[in-house]
Amino acid sequence: MLSLHNVSAGYGGTLALRNVTVEVAQGEFVGIIGPNGCGKTTLLRVATGTLLPEAGEIRLQGRALQLIARRQLARTVACLPQHLAVDLAFTVQEIVLMGRSPHVSRIGGETKRDLEIVGLAMAHADVLHLVDRPITELSGGERQRAYLAMCLAQNPSLLLLDEPTNHLDLRHQLSLLDLIVRLNRQARMTVLAVFHDLNLAAEYCDRLLLLDRGQIVAIGSPQDVLVEETIYRVFGVTVSVQHDPSSQRTSVIFTSHAPRSGINPGGTPLPSTPTTGLPRGRAAVSGRGR
Prior knowledge:
About 30% of the residues lie in helices and about 25% in strands. By secondary structure, it is of the alpha/beta class. The chain has a six-stranded mixed sheet, with helices on both faces. Helix 6 (about 170-185) links the parallel strand 7 and strand 8 (about 190-195).
């Protein structure tokens, strides 16, 4: 579905991605994880064509990305960025209807079928009861769900999400990810999503791609990527990783955020500092249904 080969990209002469090679197959759910500034959002931007790589090749369904017309690309790929602000008082229905733009005839306008798809997208994202509300009057979580409905209305083959659970309460985090997994499994919608919560990423994704300083550190199943030493080396936190063979679930339990043995994760010795991290045994909330 999507392949990046030796891709390097950045801003103002500074590379944020360096020689990244990865292939995402049709129907996969791949999570991108890593510390702030490691290149996660940049990877999504080059995958959508909004940021041109400085080197390397990107192919979508076997075609070079730069050769695909923007309207055709929008029929295949939908992207929910981390920050999407609409300052005009469009209603939720109008916002979601924007997702149909690549499919709507420029002469005839929206059809009954377009409106049916918009209604279904709003129902999936749990915003149907907000249909006539201005987007400017909604909470952060409600806006996030409305924007997701707009992406779903595109009926994409590839869905790109940058921190999709941002601004959502726990119930809506889980229901949103359950929905994405359902679309991924039933409609074989390919999903590439950025996560900060390692436990949610492990629970819902088929594979994880771990980035650090613009390069791939590890890629594979959650069990293979979420390794205690690797997490310490990349994030600088001490964790306990548990894997349940019966359920195939991998969980990360945070024990401390202070470097161990006076060693910086990057390898530089640090002054001795008392451990003042999270209480032992504290873990991020895990999701359901992978």
